[in-house]
Amino acid sequence: MQSHWIKPLAAGLLACLLAGLAQAQVLTGTMKKALDTGAVTLGYRESSIPFSYLSARGEPIGYAVDICRALVDAMGEEMGRELLIKWQPVTSESRINAVVSGQVDLECGSTTSNLERQKQVAFSPTTFVSGTKLMVKKGAMVRSFRDLVGKRVVVTAGTTNEKAMRELSEKFKLNLDLLVSHDHAESFALLAADKADAFATDDVLLYGLLAQNKGQAGYAVVGDFLSYDPYGIMYRKGDAQLAALVNKTFGSLAEEGDLERLYKRWFLRRLPSGVSINLPMSPQLATIIQTMGVKPE
């Protein structure tokens, strides 16, 4: 009696084993690494609100973190196993090297995708569109970058904002006293302590810091955009399998409305701090997401 089902069962188990071995042989790059280790390492930021930052419990949370979780789920589904998430903090200065060196597999932050960086790393489709603006204390005589002649401006090390302000200072002879801090929280602290006259970074990060610190009453975000910054999730360059999965997953997230729902959660509803950034989706990002969700015929 038993032989009637033992042989089919053994054959089925053998087929599954061979399929698993075949899959292990064809997977490459980050996908192969994830299959072998059973885990994906996500790089996160500690104060890039609301994209990637630490909750009151010290857990990484945010818009980019949620997108990265969806990518990890998609990777697991692709290889038929659940993947663990390992967390690795990165800074503006360390994030690119962390991806290149393999220290992190996906960088979930507020990183601008540009041609210079694309020489070293790969980027997902655009997750957000931002640009450099200035935060000042209310009452300060600063309404645009032209009012910054000879003043102290703090930027965060390793950001496109640092480069933008240096170029602006040189082009318009502003003679800025540029202060470079370790992270956005430190930059904000320098402004709060009157050690800087303005803090220059992406406008959405400025609004996020104000929401997290409940400090809208004492500060203002001023001036025109001083740069154009489309954000993306970073991963290693030359990883064709992961690139295909990332693009496919973004297409599904856009088509099913998940990206829009995530945006509303982090930009229009209250953050865990109890304050909302209240920043509607820009027409540029809305168009990008709409296009992303259209399947090719």
TrEMBL record:
Pfam families for this protein = SBP_bac_3
List UniProt keywords, sorted A-Z: Signal, Transport
Signal peptide stretch: 1-24
**Keyword check for Membrane:** no
Q: Does the keyword Lyase apply?
A: no
CDD domains in UniProt: PBP2_GltI_DEBP
Where the record annotates domain Solute-binding protein family 3/N-terminal, the positions are 39-270
The record's InterPro entries line, in alphabetical order, gives: Bact_solute-bind_prot3, Solute-binding_3/MltF_N
Which family would the database say this protein is a member of?
Belongs to the bacterial solute-binding protein 3 family.
Protein name, UniProt field: Glutamate/aspartate transport system substrate-binding protein
